[in-house]
Amino acid sequence: MELTSQHFLALAPLLITSATAVVVMLAIAWRRNHSMTFLLSCAGLNLALLSILPVLKVTPLSVTTLLQVDNFACLYMALILIATLACVTLAHAYLGESVEGAGYPGNREELYLLIILAAAGGLVLVMAQHLSTLFIGLELLSVPTYGLIAYAFFDKRSLEGGIKYMVLSAAGSAFLLFGMALVYADAGSLSFSAIGSVLAATGQPSSLAQLGLSMMLVGLAFKLSLVPFHLWTPDVYEGAPAPVAAFLATASKVAVFAVVVRLFQLSPLTSSGMVYTVLAVIAVLSILVGNLLAVLQSNIKRLLGYSSIAHFGYLLIALVASKGLAVEAIGVYLATYVLTSLGAFGVITLMSSPYHGRDADALFEYRGLFWRRPYLTAVLTVMMLSLAGIPLTAGFIGKFYVIATGVESQLWWLVGALVIGSAIGVFYYLRVMVTLYLREADIPRRDAPLKWEQRAGGVMLLAVAILAFVLGVYPQPLIDLVQHAGLHPMG
Amino acid sequence: MILPWLILIPFIGGLLCWLGERGAATLPRWIALLTMTLEFALGLWLWATGDYTLAPAPGAAPHWAVEFHVGWIQRFGISIHLALDGLSLLMVLLTGLLGMLSVLCSWKEIQRHVGFFHLNLMWILGGVVGVFLAVDMFLFFFFWEMMLVPMYFLIALWGHSSADGKRTRIYAATKFFIFTQASGLIMLVAILGLVLVHYNQTGILTFSYGELLKAQLPAGTEFVLMLGFFVAFAVKLPVVPVHSWLPDAHAQAPTAGSVDLAGILLKTAAYGLLRFALPLFPHASAEFAPVAMTLGLIGIFYGAFLAFAQTDIKRLIAYSSVSHMGFVLIAIYSGSQLALQGAVVQMLAHGVSAAALFILSGQLYERLHTRDMREMGGLWARIPYLPAISLFFAAASLGLPGTGNFVGEFLILLGSFKATPWISAIATSGLVFGSVYSLIMIHRAYFGPAKATSVLPGMDGREMTMILGLAVLLVWLGLYPQPFLDTSSATISGVQHWFSTAFTQLASAR
């Protein structure tokens, strides 16, 4: 297959992101300068984001049999790039602005390099239409993440989190590879659509293919931290520096979920039979276990970790339904979830900025925050309500979509689990929320720096909060956007 | 254009209160009072000028006195559709009135974070007005859930923990939130089910109440969907097996919170049953009526017995609400025009009398710093006026002729007697227990040996005006309820038509 300029245009976001990684690396080699690295990364990511606009004119387009650039990929690329940009601005505030001032004591610049590399991996993933690109993308996403989690390596918890993530992620990858091999043995092809048509030809997938698909599911469930493969999540979220945790919760998970959706949409039979049952069971377990364990947490990062397990459980409901509203629901839900998680981790990041040891992640450190930092608290309140799915916030629209999908496909057990899960969820989100407003206790406290809202991270955070509110009140633009990004199986 | 303003005024007023906190400490109170007065005045103006002889009825597109309609989320056929008829007008008036009172009664009680308190108070009222006006199912649910958040804050931040420390205010607030939120989600599932059934029949995706009324539901589906709605309303009303949030929330809430909870929030459930559950699912409701009425009966007695056993004066009033709402539930499912009209009067009268009792117990608390009736006793001699006025409202609560509660209960019992004589007869005996707990409350708190001899401060002008105003209103409702009955009659006869048709069909089928 010959690559034309159109193909290169279609790959522009990926190419620009990769080029940014190279430029940032060279810049670091030439002269260490925190602000310059930050500006370069921002410029590159913004450029990549803007390049999606011209890409929309040439979609849908297959770039070799490996990558498929369509509106679906564009939507998720945009989501990943926006999330990465937000994490980068947060990281800038977190590491400390100047070398002389307070902040992160080690080398600051490599963090940006790692984040950009991981983002490039995410871009590959959402375009993948072939098991090999799926694997390459996944590894490109995961390997820099080990470094990111352990970036504050002089903190024991960060190092522990990094190693834990590395070991478990490698185990997940092994499962994934083995599963792929089994599927290949049965279908004789690695491309999503070919697998789909081969499986469809035989009617019910053979037990070999089903086993392979289940093992692939295990590998992907590791990355999505679905129960029972969730054990790493709370520790890693707790150990990772706050901006990195934000990246893990948003960009990384969105990319993996997008590729799962594409796989199941392009080869529908992959989610039939045993795999279907397994998915439904995992969904119910994730919702219940995630929410129940979150109730017990007094560390806000761990709490958000468990809550993300539950949220991906909700998302699985749409995946199990996989028809009608499902793809649209997933798009809307992921968009609102990314927004909300960014907001929540953003507040934690600003509370812990600039870096000085452990992050401010114990719930008691947030006691009475409202009376000291009212706007920052308002942001976190909106985010908690959004996570709980209360009207007037973006999260409600997402939850509404998922329930609509569940009812449409008559998945009563899953809808029931969602209702119960939400009721449990409300309990701990409210606990966080009310803590913010309680009277202050006499304990040494940490606060976001004064005038936090006048810096890049703060501006981003306020924008996220306003967007979460506006989308909750008037979601039509988001729905239009996601509807355009429907997934059409190509022949 | 007036309907969106009815909703927006409290929201904007609430924001202004918050901003006004930076100025004088009393500024938020005045802004809030002004906001609610404006709301109430708008309601009165609508009452004076509107024509409420038209209301939704079977067989035709719904008529409304005032309507407002703009598109919102086209993807699902959701629009911002507000409409007003006699029933919603009465509820909005009640909201405006109790809103003013809840600002007034917290004038001295709330001293911390005054601006934020009034922000929450105003937003609750805005959400409640939204519930009363919304005729798009999505919008209705939107407001239904939204009003929980400020109520949660109100209880959690300004409430009182119980003296023994067992029940904290945060516990009460969280319990309230989880109960209503979970049941609300069940209603959302039912709403979506209804919408999708309608969509499969007609190919039109819409959340509009007027359109959904026309949906032809298979019997089994209708029953399940009706149950989804009923669960949400039953929790809020509250019906007995799912009532346990109510005493905690009431007892722990600040006075203004209790006034809003008992006076208005409980009424949203009865309103929801009348507006949505009955007209949308008449056949299933007719089939379900015996069960619902039995639940109502259980509520009457259970509420009365537990009220009698309480030592906390606010918990006592809370359980009395459970008992009174039992009457409303029986009336709603009796299918008689008279009983339904009685339910409307009972809602108004209970709103006023329960609010007054909560305000009075709030005033007692400000003087004695306890709500425990074991520590009261002999107050008749120690506080001028207050005990006598309490006696009046306790008498109203037990249904003394001359007060609105009597009219409401009398109409309910009379109306339901024809169709279900046994239930009526048993419910009537519940009134006896009503007298018992009302009088025992007065006896424990105000009579008996005094615990101290010091004279406590009497009621000031603000307190006196509030309470006397409510007393006058209650007597008006008791002596001349006709204007209220006229206003709601069109709506009620519509509801009754839907329901009685279903009843006759059910009877002939058996």
TrEMBL record, chain A:
Membrane topology type: Multi-pass membrane protein
InterPro entries attached to this UniProt entry: NADH-Q_OxRdtase_suN/2 (IPR010096), ND/Mrp_TM (IPR001750)
Key word NAD present: yes
Enzyme class (EC, first level): translocase
Top-level division of the source organism's lineage: Bacteria
Keywords tagged on the record: Cell membrane, Membrane, NAD, Oxidoreductase, Quinone, Translocase, Transmembrane, Transmembrane helix, Transport, Ubiquinone
Residues covered by the NADH:quinone oxidoreductase/Mrp antiporter transmembrane domain: 128-424
Entry EC no(s): 7.1.1.-
Known catalytic reactions: a quinone + NADH + 5 H(+)(in) = a quinol + NAD(+) + 4 H(+)(out)
GO terms for MF: oxidoreductase activity
Pfam families: Proton_antipo_M (PF00361)
Transmembrane portions of the chain: 6-30, 37-56, 76-95, 111-128, 134-154, 166-187, 207-232, 244-264, 276-296, 303-322, 334-355, 375-398, 410-430, 456-474
Cellular localisation: Cell membrane; Endomembrane system; Membrane
Job description of the protein: NDH-1 shuttles electrons from NADH, via FMN and iron-sulfur (Fe-S) centers, to quinones in the respiratory chain. The immediate electron acceptor for the enzyme in this species is believed to be ubiquinone. Couples the redox reaction to proton translocation (for every two electrons transferred, four hydrogen ions are translocated across the cytoplasmic membrane), and thus conserves the redox energy in a proton gradient.
Assembly description: NDH-1 is composed of 13 different subunits. Subunits NuoA, H, J, K, L, M, N constitute the membrane sector of the complex.
Similarity field: Belongs to the complex I subunit 2 family.
Protein name: NADH-quinone oxidoreductase subunit N
From TrEMBL, chain B:
Compartment list: Endomembrane system; Membrane
Keyword Cell inner membrane: no
Lipid bilayer topology: Multi-pass membrane protein
Keywords: Membrane, Oxidoreductase, Transmembrane, Transmembrane helix
Span of domain NADH:quinone oxidoreductase/Mrp antiporter transmembrane: 134-429
MF-aspect GO terms: oxidoreductase activity
Xref: Pfam families: Proton_antipo_M
Superkingdom in the source lineage: Bacteria
Segments traversing the membrane: 6-23, 30-48, 87-107, 114-135, 141-160, 172-199, 219-240, 261-282, 288-309, 316-333, 339-362, 383-402, 422-442, 463-480
NCBIfam families with a match to the protein in the record: NDH_I_M (TIGR01972), PRK05846.1-1 (NF004498)
Family: Belongs to the complex I subunit 4 family.
Name of this protein: NADH-quinone oxidoreductase subunit M
Source species: Pseudomonas typographi
Encoding gene, per UniProt annotation: nuoM
